[in-house]
């Protein structure tokens, strides 16, 4: 399966996926990494590893026009599955239609709680005792779409946003590859909002 990974920043989820592929824990290939910010730290990860990379700056561009560039680039690289990995832009309905049930996102909360920006801060300020992360299919709404895998972590009394985010991030790095693996293995069925994962044979 050919992955297209979209990033905006640090790229640690992209790196975790690349590591799992390199260690043969995930049977997939990164066909292209696309980044919408020219100075993102994640660019260096792709460069160091010789993974095909395109910067398509999004600043000042209209959503539909930008998404058309994304679709063209992903199609050129014959991408089967699009993985948003800290890609901080909402995608248009046209984009979602171009890759039906083929776009995944990772979000640092147990959705549907704490969608949007600063999810870890939202969780800490709300006072939840359990936080976590979610990999889900993407629809045209923010941090919405059927949920594939979630992982929970405790919120500790001494937590800061940074310490909680770090605990969640460690789980993000595990569950993103897990969710991609389920899809690569053809074990996933979507029934309305529910995602069913067939048992491993
Ligand atoms: C991750 O924590 C990811 O869950 C979050 O951005 C971070 C990107 O880190 N995504 C969202 O908040 C999406 N709504 P990374 O660039 O190191 O993978």
Task: Please give a quick description of this structure.
The chain has 201 residues and is an alpha/beta fold.
Task: List the topology elements.
Layout: E1 2-7, H1 12-22, E2 29-35, H2 42-49, E3 53-55, H3 63-76, E4 81-84, H4 93-98, E5 103-107, H5 119-126, E6 130-137, E7 147-154, H6 161-184, E8 188-191, E9 194-197
Parallel strand pairs: 1-2, 1-4, 2-3, 4-5
Antiparallel strand pairs: 5-6, 6-7, 8-9
Structural features, described:
The protein has 201 residues and is of the alpha/beta class. The chain contains 6 helices and 9 strands; from the N terminus they run βαβαβαβαβαββαββ. The strands form 2 sheets. A 7-stranded mixed beta sheet has the order 3-2-1-4-5-6-7. Helix 1 (12-22) links the parallel strand 1 (2-7) and strand 2. Helix 1 (12-22) crosses helix 6. The structure holds glycinamide ribonucleotide (GAR). Glycinamide ribonucleotide is lined by residues 7, 9-13, 42, 85-86, 106-108, 119, 143, 169, 172.
| Rg measurement, Å | 16 Å
Number of helices: 6
Query: CATH topology of the largest domain, which one?
Result: Rossmann fold
Name of the CATH first level of the largest domain:
Alpha Beta
Which ligands appear in the coordinates? glycinamide ribonucleotide
Q: Helix-strand pattern, N to C?
A: EHEHEHEHEHEEHEE
Structural class: alpha/beta
Number of strands: 9
Quaternary state of this entry equals: single chain
**How far is the first residue's CA from the last residue's CA?**
20 Å
Q: How many domains make up the coordinates?
A: 2
Largest sheet: 7 strands, mixed
Give the strand content: 15-25%
Compute the average pLDDT.
97
Q: How helix-rich are the residues, as a percent range? A: 25-40%
What are the segments in which pLDDT stays under 50 over at least 5 consecutive residues? none
Classified in CATH, the superfamily of the largest domain is Formyl transferase, N-terminal domain
Categorize the overall geometry. globular
Strand order, largest beta sheet: 3-2-1-4-5-6-7
CATH architecture level-2 label of the largest domain: 3-Layer(aba) Sandwich
């Amino acid at each position: 399966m050919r992955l297209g990974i979209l990033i905006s920043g640090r790229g640690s989820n992209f790196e975790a996926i690349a590591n799992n592929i390199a260690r043969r824990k995930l049977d997939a290939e990164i066909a292209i990494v696309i980044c919408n910010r020219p100075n993102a730290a994640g660019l260096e990860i792709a460069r160091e590893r010789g993974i095909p990379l395109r910067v398509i700056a999004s600043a000042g561009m209209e959503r539909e026009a930008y998404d058309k560039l994304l679709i063209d680039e992903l199609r050129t690289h014959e991408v089967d599955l699009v993985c948003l990995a800290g890609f901080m832009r909402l995608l248009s309905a046209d984009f979602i239609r171009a890759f039906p049930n083929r776009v995944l996102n990772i979000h640092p909360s147990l959705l549907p709680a704490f969608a949007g920006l600063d999810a870890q801060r939202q969780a800490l300020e709300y006072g939840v005792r359990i936080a976590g992360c979610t990999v889900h299919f993407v629809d045209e709404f923010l941090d919405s779409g059927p949920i594939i895998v979630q992982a929970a972590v405790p919120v500790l009394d001494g937590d800061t946003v940074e310490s909680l985010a770090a605990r969640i991030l460690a789980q993000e790095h595990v569950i993103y590859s897990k969710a991609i693996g389920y899809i690569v293995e053809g074990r996933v069925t979507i029934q309305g909002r529910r995602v069913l994962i067939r048992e491993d044979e």
